[in-house]
Amino acid sequence: MSNVITIPTINYYEDPSENWGGYQYVTIKDVVNRFMLTYVGDDRILPSNTKRYQVIYHAKRALQELNYDALKEVKTMELELGDALQLILPIDYVNWVRVSYVDQNGRYHPIMQNSDTTIVTASYLQDNKFNIIFDQEGYPLEGESVTFNNAKSTDLGNVNQFDVSDYISMSGDVGGPNYGGANYGLDTSKANKNGTFNIDKKLGIIQFSSDLKYRVIALEYLSDGLEFSDESEIEVHKMAEACLINYIAWQMLHTKYNVQEYIINRFRKEYFSQLNNTKLRMADIDGEKIMQLLKGRRTWLA
User: Do 80 and 199 fall into the same domain?
Assistant: First the structure.
């Protein structure tokens, strides 16, 4: 008799409450259970009195490292920008990948980070002699900062991105404001017409230039994968499961007293070997995609 469990696929495809695509993930709870079964015991590398909470701790740390280095599963948040010209960073935000505004056709227009200014947290009021004004309790009075909020992308040291339509007229005649070297000496690292943004990690906000007011902003960012506290809700991709288990074993042995160094080094090497394999698997690189990218190698640039 076959031991294969038959799952009615009609429930998966027709029930919106099903976890579509969930088969590619495994929970941290299952990973910890498999680790305890394989590595913990009287005749195993870890003694039978190994605490489960220690394994869970190292499993979560391993997931964080994998999300920073290998998995990099990007999340996206879309919000409309109001008068305050700022958005609160997502609760599970770690680092940003791309910030864009979304046009009416749903296309993303990348916004450039402005490294020439910072978000001012306090703007002290001054008298006519430029002395700071204090209140009765001795604290400085603060006003509203206008350094970033009221600035446009062109006011922050950036120029409009070169547009071919400004160089060649509709009739085909050469002309326009960019003709004759008007953009000569342009700092291409700052050439931008989509607006600018700045992030204050301490305040937990991302602030935009005023020309992006009322636009829909798309923030693509990385998380550490630990937005849920319950181990049965935290998931990791199955392609990274072996790497996760090797990290747990390495760290458990590394922090244990009286373990021979060659054993620790063996699991350390196995972890980094699995990490490289995970990176290659998650990179999703194949010959067809490379050939598609190389099709434009002979394209002439105007």
Answer: yes
Q: How many helices (H) and strands (E) does the chain have?
A: 7, 12
Task: Specify the long-range contacts of residues 267-276, CB closer than 8 Å, at least 24 apart.
Answer: 270/246, 271/243, 271/246, 271/247, 274/242, 274/243, 274/246, 275/66, 275/69, 275/70, 275/243
d(CA 38, CA 18): 31
Query: φ, ψ for residue 280 (rounded to 5)?
Result: -65, -40
Q: CA nearest 243: which of 285, 280, 273?
A: 273
Q: Does 256 score more than 50 pLDDT?
A: yes
Are 218 and 79 in a shared domain?
Answer: yes
What is the rounded average pLDDT of the residues 164-180? 44
Task: Give how far Cα 35 sits from Cα of 85, 170, 248, 266, Å.
Answer: 48, 68, 8, 17
Q: For residue 220, list its beta bridge partners.
A: 76, 98
> Do 129 and 209 belong to one domain?
yes
Domain count, the chain: 2
Instruction: Say which residue the tokens 């040291």 belong to.
Output: 157
Q: Are 245 and 45 in contact (CB under 8 A)?
A: no
> 46-103: per-residue pLDDT in tens?
988 889 999 999 999 989 888 887 777 788 999 999 888 889 998 888 888 899 999 9
- Do residues 163 and 178 make contact, with C-beta atoms less than 8 angstroms apart? yes
